[in-house]
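User: Fold this; tokens only.

Assistant: Input:
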Amino acid sequence: MSIPTTAAIVREQPGRFDVTDVLLEEPREGEILVKMVASGLCHSDYHLLSGDSQPGLLPMVGGHEGTGIVEGVGPDTHGWEVGDKLVFSFIGSCGKCRWCSEGMTNLCDLGAFLMKGSRFRDPDSFRFSLPDGTPISQMCGLGTFAERTVVDVNSAVKLPPDAPLETLWLLGCGVGTGWGSAVYLAGIHPGDVTIVMGIGGVGINAVQGAVHAGSMSVIAVDPLEFKREKAREMGATHAFADIQEATEFARSITNGQGADQAILTPGVLAGEHIAQGFAAIRKAGTVVVTGIAPASEEVIPIQPLELTRYQKRIQGSVYGGSNPQADIPRQYRMYSAGQLKLDELISRTYSLENINDGYDDLLNGLNIRGGVIY
């Protein structure tokens, strides 16, 4: 039996979200039906609109960051009950593949399905459809831009009964990606100098992560004064409008050496950004590449000789190297203890019907993080 609901779908690229009536299959084994409470407007979903990211199937329900309440549990699906609160992890973790068994659950083999948008356990099957039967895929297997969705339990993290779902959607992507890029992948030590380029929903959490990891100087880079000021509120010690200014400052406080780390979190990454971060760091420094580049971007204009002679490191970042089943509960505890700021990151909220307004505001630099409240 199909469940009627409303969702924001992408029909073509480039395009806009179309908020329309859709049908949703009931949960199968290993799946849960979730009534959405809130969803984040992440730049990664704009990459879906622009065509920078290519889905396996269009139309696709957007959204990969959200919270909700379980309304139904598939047969023989243990550990979940109707009424449970949860936050989604945009990368599922099976717990059995090589990467999960070696503690790198952010690289779980289930990641192969993120842009295909099908069921993990039945890759030729899709949970959503249009009224005429046309199948609809789900962004990251989630599709949080819908009033209701069905997901695999490997993509869900249970929350306590008193958890504030109107805020904790941030933990599903932006927080773990930015915070983990600093805490896990950048190799920050107490007293370090760290540059964060791009202060959006991910970069702002890289700032928080750098502070938590012990950076003495956290240097935020963004052309917008609003975002630079927000970075200061989150713990940045300095803020500049462009990377050249930040690089010169980092050298001025390190005897000409440069920053220990540069974490790159622009809305749309280019090879030139990596070159700029590479130039900003010292010998044996690290550039963490977290932002998403279009598939057409193929060149990083750096000198291989500098890479070798200065022993610099370019580090990729998927979900900040975070382990969602462990790190999301950890970050919730930090938030509850007042050690991690979340409420301060939410600039505006929107209805599902106004989701395109939310993305216009994102592109116009008005939000650190916008969200849909259902």
